[in-house]
Amino acid sequence: MRIGVGMATVGLVLGAAACSDSGPSMDSFVGTWTASKAEFVRVADATDKVEIIAQGGTFRITFNADSTWVATITAPQNVPDTSGGTWSASVDVLTLVTVGLSGQTQFDFVLSGNTVTLTGGHVTWDFGTGDEEALLNVTATKQ
After folding, report:
1. What architecture does CATH give domain 3-14+29-142?
2. Do residues 127 and 121 lie in contact, with contact meaning Cβ atoms separated by under 8 Å?
3. Do β-strands 58-63 and 31-42 pair in parallel, antiparallel, or remain unpaired?
4. How far is CA 54 from the centre of its chain?
5. pTM here?
6. Which pLDDT tens digit goes with each residue over 47-105?
7. Contact assessment for residue 52 and residue 76, using Cβ atoms and an 8 Å cutoff
8. Coil, helix or strand at residue 28
9. Do 46 and 143 touch, CB atoms closer than 8 A?
10. 27 φ, ψ to 5°?
11. Beta strands in 1-130 (DSSP E)
């Protein structure tokens, strides 16, 4: 299973990756986050979902103060898939731009203390028949 995390939409608006005055500070995101949930939902059939953490997989993402990020996703019985790029956040949208991919991926987010919930990031995922458009929903805790 592969994920396209540069996703035509994790779309961290390239450029100055800063949070707006009414959103969280950059420091709120900086650090390493480990997912307790990482769910891929098939866009063509929202009843088809894969939750890799529950199946023994892992998802970890690090947001750096220089507006770069790196993530490693390991689906069960697969090799780790690592990607990275730049990031920014506004009041309630986290945008990721992935190196080597065009476009960006945007997630709606709720940040509460050391827990973040990311929803609706457009990615690609192999549900068993090749890469397809999917939505990625993540709940993660800052380490």
Report:
1. Beta Barrel (2.40)
2. no
3. antiparallel
4. 17
5. 0.82
6. 999 999 999 999 999 999 999 999 999 999 899 999 999 999 998 999 999 999 888 99
7. yes
8. helix
9. no
10. -60, -25
11. 3-4, 31-42, 49-51, 58-63, 68-74, 81-89, 93-98, 105-112, 115-126
